[in-house]
Structure formats: structure tokens, C-alpha cells
Design goal:
By secondary structure, this protein is α+β, with helices and mostly antiparallel strands. The chain has two helices and five strands. Strands 2-3-4-1-5 form a five-stranded mixed sheet, covered by helices on one side. A hairpin with a 3-residue loop joins β2 and β3.
């Protein structure tokens, strides 16, 4: 697997949308002890929590459907095999609903 230094090491990374990403990240750090790993402007902030991670991002959907606002990143070793298995199980492929 190629190393991606900008990606947290966790296998599953929730991406949470907030109206004010910097304020949300600050609160999560204060309330739950998360630490900032990486800031990308004011619209995307990666937080560490124990051996896990979470990404806080701007809730500006740019017209996207509400179901596309929240997401989960999953680290996979073989993206082609992962996609093939998902599509064979009925998941939509890129560009489909």
C-alpha cells in the first residue's frame, strides 16, 4: 500500500460536517481530548483521538443532497478488489446513485 502522509492511520475515519468547522474542532478537542492532526484551511480539520481519527469539515454542501453531506473514509489495501466486491453486492459504482 502506498503511504499517504496526509491521511490518518486509522482504518475507518468518520467525516462530520459542521456549520463552523474550526469551532467544532475546538470544542471536540476541549470536550473530549481530541488533538488537531492537520488543518486544511478553515474547511477541513483532521483530529486524532486515541488510535482513531475523525475529520471535521465545513457543512457547505455546494448543492449536494443531504445524504452526501456526511461520509466515512475506509482505508483499503486493494481498491480495485474492494470496488468489485461492493458492486457485485449491489453498491452503486462511481457516477451512479
Amino acid at each position: 500500500m502506498l503511504a499517504n502522509r496526509s491521511m490518518p492511520a486509522a482504518e475507518v475515519i468518520p467525516v462530520l460536517a459542521y456549520a463552523d468547522a474550526p469551532a467544532a474542532a475546538s470544542w471536540l478537542c476541549s470536550a473530549f481530548g481530541f488533538t488537531v492532526r492537520l488543518r486544511i484551511g478553515d474547511h477541513r480539520i483532521q483530529l486524532n483521538v486515541g488510535v482513531g481519527a475523525v475529520v471535521v469539515r465545513s457543512a457547505d454542501t455546494g448543492g449536494a443532497a443531504p445524504s452526501e453531506v456526511q461520509s466515512v473514509m475506509v482505508r483499503v489495501h486493494d481498491v480495485d478488489a474492494h470496488r468489485s466486491r461492493a458492486v457485485a453486492s449491489g453498491a452503486g459504482s462511481a457516477g451512479s446513485p
